# Entry
Amino acid sequence: MANQTQMSLFGDFPGEEPVAEKQPQAKTPALRALELRALLDHAAYQYYALDDPEMTDAEFDRLLQELLAIEAEHPELVTPDSYTQRVGGYVSEQFEPVTHAQRMYSMDDAMNLDELDEWLARTDEALGATDERPVAYTCELKIDGLGVALTYRDGQFVRAATRGDGTTGENVTANVRTVSDVPRALAPAGLMRIADEGLGQSVEVRGEVYMPKRSFVRLNEERDGAGQPVFANPRNAAAGSLRQKDPKITAHRDLATFIYAVADEGPISVTSQWEFLQWLRACGFSVNPNARRCTSAREVHEFCEQALAHRDELDYDIDGVVVKVDSFASQDALGFTARAPRWAIAYKFPPEEKRTVLREIRIQVGRTGVLTPVAEFDPVVVAGSTIARATLHNIDEIRRKDVREGDTIVVHKAGDVIPEVVGPVLEGDLAAEHAARPEWNMPERCPSCGSPVVREEGEVAYRCVSIDCPAQASERLIHWGSRNAMDIDGLGDELVGRMVEQGLLSDVADFYDRLSEDALAALDTGRTYETTNKDHAAGDAIVVGRTIARKIMAQVEASKERGLARVLFGLGIRHVGANVGEVLARRFGSIQALTAASAEEIAQVEGIGPKIAQSVVEFFAVPDNLKVVERLREAGVVLEEEEPAEVAPQTLAGLTFVLTGTLERFKRKEAGDALKALGAKVSGSVSKKTNFVIAGAAAGSKLTKAEQLGVPVLDEAALARILETGEAPAVE
# Structure
């Protein structure tokens, strides 16, 4: 699957030179900047650390441009931790950290050709360009994959790391070794151009790991057939595949690379980006054939236009064009800003837009009870695929866009991936027809179960709070059996889904007073035997079976003794996580006492605010929820919290700890529980309110953030002393 044989769509590769939410008007620049930083940080964490983006690329870019504009007008608002001052990305704690030879920077964006022309003009002026001596630029396709750095020592491949936060990445060497187009050794033709023939030299080249479209389709078909969740796009699939603990899984995923950069060109006898790309090719790297050296803005425009026109013909995703000053000497002269090179820019493709008719706005009920309006429209082909529906997010977004059922609307794929409604077409008669249509409103009752819908003060979402809502059933049941809740081993997502489909479960009490070993053993898994054997014919349905059913039912029985804290967490009450469940269980002692408490009484508990208190009261105010709790009691589920025989002195009360990395003497949960027993709060994230961070081996982004915020960092030996003495160290 090497890419060396790929043909260029934009000419040969010759050896010679040729929509966050609407901003309230009352917000000051300082408040808006603070809000934008929080939105960008969260979106970057979802994208880089979790490979599960919640925000489209286009929306992220829009917010970043807004923050840049605010900080340009108000320099006093620029902070060291602002997203404009750093490279994006996060470092996972799953892999060993790797420090890059040089920082891997982000890229500034040009959202249209006018912005690209402005950058070209500034760059030409800075470099003293004339008609006789124009500045040359190398244009390359912007691959939508995962950034990676490959290190070669003495010409041999020794290490691979993800981009991470730009300074530190994740060691994914074992996984990258399974990628077929990554050379294990540099070819002699390239090696000879390294000083001293490569002896004693270390070279770090950089590029993108991606998943070809055909491989993405095949992988999703396999996952869908196995009942596993499919990947949203090839970029997510590539990132998830590269971060597998088992390299065999990575090898099966059919990844590929394009290499295009170097940390330091010093060891290589090349003087320009164009020459460097040819050197990479000579070394045996996979280099994208669609690159061009340009000497005018017109040529750069032509390349961008051709790339946009031919993008659907490629077997990999691109989302723009990267334009770089060709000369390395000129690059050095221009230098870098805090987060990006001044000598390069990414021209981002505009989304393809189509018109269609909005037929209906339907409600989709999510696992947490959130009612999400979804636009259903006449099918239309956008960016190479047919779309017929798109989320409208919430009622505020519908009001902002002012879309109404029956409107002719404009749709596109945000980031070329996620279908999005841009808004109604308000031209001629269409505007009058739009004005005559009624505004759409959220329903007052859940369309799935008929329970009342609530909207908390300050929230944009409407919610169904009934525990008996069929639309939420599977996710609530899966959550109930999760490790930090009732810890029922053997309950996978697919199995729970089948039990709901076949009527064995509808709410969490069904585990105890309805589900039986016989019924579970006979459950159809949705799969069939492929071949005939002595017990089954080919095509017969595969059932759960007696052995597995017996083990699961034993786990269900054992879960009755987990205690009130886990029950409260398992019920899925909004804002009640595992820690809050423990606090409430300790304070009230029984679910009966908790349900009898008022919101004011609950809010008085340390660590419980008005929002959590109101959520708890609203949950237990629903009659169906109380019926489920009563059935749990009748089935023998423990709904009280036993007080420990001897409560340890709360010497760490008021202190917040964060645990990160691998501990040798303790498991992190055990260490956390021990700290809590002494009155401490154990948090999953580092903030200015954190008192201490306990860092074990391979500590990652949490350690970095602690150092940035000046939070004291302790090792495992210090943790042992704290648990032994019950006292935290003094901080100067």
